Each structure stands twice: as C-alpha cells, then as structure tokens.
Amino acid sequence: MWQQYKKSANHCCNERSFVLGISGGSSLELSFHFIKRFPKDYILYVVPSNNAKIVCKAEKGLNLIAEIRKLRNQNLIIENSITSKLASGSFVFESCIILPTSSHTLSCIANGLQDNLLTRIGAICLKEKRTLILSIREMPLSAVLLENMQKLAIQGVFIAPPIAGYYSGIHNLESLHDFFIGRYFDILQIPHNLYRRWNGK
Global pTM? Predict the structure, then answer.
C-alpha cells in the first residue's frame, strides 16, 4: 500500500509518515517511549487530544506538548486542530496508532462519531482502509467496549492492548516498554530490534 502513497503529491521523496494519536487514558509513558524509539528518518505526526493534556497534567504535573518536543525535534509535527490537513482523506499518511486509546475514543471511532481531530483520523483510516492500531487502556473490559472492539476488528482495525510477552526477556520497566513498542512497530512494518523474539525448541 505504501508504494501507491509514495506517488502522492503530498510526498516529494520516499519518506514514510505515521500518526501517533494520544487520547486521555492512563499510560502516557508508552506514548513517550514510542516517540523516543520511533525512527528519526520517518515523519511522525503527533495528535494529542485535549483530555490527554489534562491527564498528563493531572498524573505527571507536566505539559504534554512540551514533553513531546523534548523527546524529538526531527521530523516531528504536532497537530491538534480539526482544520489540520490530517482531517482530510486526501492527505496521505501510512498508518495511525492511538496510544493509549481511551474508552471514549474507542467508542467514538466504532460508532462513527468525529468529535475531534483524533476521532476524525480514526474515521479516515476506516474509510481509506489504512492501518489503524488501537491500544486500549481499560480493565476490566465491559460488554459495551468488547462489542465496539469487535465492530472495529471486523473492519480490519488492530485491537492491541499493551499485554506483555515474558519470553522476550523483560527484566525492568524499560524492557517492558520496549516490548510493547516493538510489537506496535511490527504491525506498522517498522524495522527494529527492541525485544527478543520467541525462538521455540
């Protein structure tokens, strides 16, 4: 699919571009780790929701936008206005991951509600058939959330909550985060060596 995107007027070269959405769920450390590990030669659009900014301030006492800019300044573009070019299906990006995905964001995308730029991008991924990964951050899962997850999975959305694979040699918090981000990179087809893969006997 990316081959056809490279011919788009949006791209004058072979740079790959991705969207990282950050919704108002706990586990912002994973969003930060994703940005830190993301290849510097790819373009990364970061789309934080207003609720994500509120959660970051409440949980960490930090300004979310300022923290993102500290982590990366090369090929980083922050967008959070509904007038953004990302709000149009005619603007091409390869894939989107929403990390974390709040129950609100999940429910909006599953039911066609586009109340902010993040949920609009989710709708674009569905209609343009682009890769969309939702890292659901909720436990336990209600029947309503499971139903919404099923609706999206049937349409090809990757439902990928952060669940550890302990075969990968996890021994501290950073290696745990590396495993999660590595699994997301696998789905996004981004080369990496962030974790030890299973090698059965």
Answer: 0.91
